[in-house]
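Field reference: sequence -> structure
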Amino acid sequence: MIPLVYHPAYNVSAFGLERLHPFDGGKYRRIHDALIVRGLRRGKDFARPRPVSRQELLKVHRPEYLRSLQRSETLARALEVPIVRRLPCWLIDWRVLRPMRYATGGTVLACRLALEHGLAINLGGGYHHAAAGWGGGFCVYADVPLAVKTLRDDDKVGKVLVVDLDAHQGNGTASVFREWPWAKIFDLYEEDVFPAHKEAEDYPLPVPAGLAGDEYLDCVREFLPQALDEVRPDLVVYNAGSDPFAGDPLARFRLTASDLVDRELLVVSEVRERKIPLAMVLSGGYSKESWKLHADAIEGVLTRFDRAR
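Structure field:
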């Protein structure tokens, strides 16, 4: 079976304050539970990661940035929840950053399992707005750069390609990758939404608001194979944000739930047809249906690929 990575500690709960941001901090549990209810996995089938340590975070993040996370002002800015300025940092670390460290560990584990099994999915992660020295957009730790740097340091991979199909540009990932000639990013995003400043990328694909499912999937179908064939990576990390969904409040694409299932199947098929290992992380998604969109898409991948390896 395709390895699925999850820990109950992924879920963000800060005494209701998490509701001040449109991101659903409890959706990871809902996805996990839905996959069990649907008979796709049992509870014991999920691989459990450990949280990343400060020493591991220093592979990517600057020491001064990690120290700055002890200040409420920095956390409020990165999480985009102004009231955090009034809260003690230990509380935010416990209820928000600790879950993110677990999910970051989950991305590292998913990448390792992808190299072993060909395909693995982390039910969290994808904090693509976090860079070496800054965070934003509810992203604090650069989990994907950390995961691929860890594997690179262990001589497990040479070249890496991130496929980012979140509706927003992966500016943090792109910023980190600028210093690493062996790491590339293919990024399809809505051109006039957050972040205001777009980072230079290897394969940028900015598109206008209002793109419907057929147009969106045609873009992926046309341009992704070229990036895969030019980079010839040893690992692909797929940032599978659900925010291109038509009901998402922070983007203006018009994909249906069915389109998102088709998108996942298209990406996984293109990568696995080339015998490239793929690790999938979930990234953004701000509609009330985000958990179900992810669960449906993962179900589609499991149904197609669980026995096809």
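Note: Residues 4-305 form a domain with the Arginase; Chain A fold (CATH 3.40.800.20).
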